[in-house]
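Team,

Forwarding the record for the chain on the shared tracking sheet. I've put the sequence and predicted structure together so nobody has to dig through attachments.
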Amino acid sequence: MKINTTRVKMVLKNKVIPAIYLENELGISRSVIEKVRDGERKIENLTLETIIKVQKWIDSGKYTFSYDYSDLIEELEEDIAEGLVDEYIYVVRGPYNELLDKCPIIDYYYTSEEIEEGDLAEKTLITSVLAEMKSDNKIF
């Protein structure tokens, strides 16, 4: 099992998730969660068992991390509706995002001739690009 401490920290510090819910889901004391949230306890000082419980919960798919692709999805769907794109586009990815565990799409080009100097772009099926962005855009 790979433990992503950034993700574990984000789950425990996310005040939108009630501490009582995490206590019931993970079997972690609510007081431990509240101390982490209040800054009284650091993630680094939690037991390995506690960190593993959170990571297993994340890995089970009960908590997902999202990326706001709303504007890019809207723009691409408009381009498709206007017939400006073919079956493939060239996507540009940003730096590695530890929460997503990948490099997010930050821009795209219609053709290889449009790719600006310094940009690395990969030729990808437009349906795959939209599916990836819509999947990462969901907030559960």
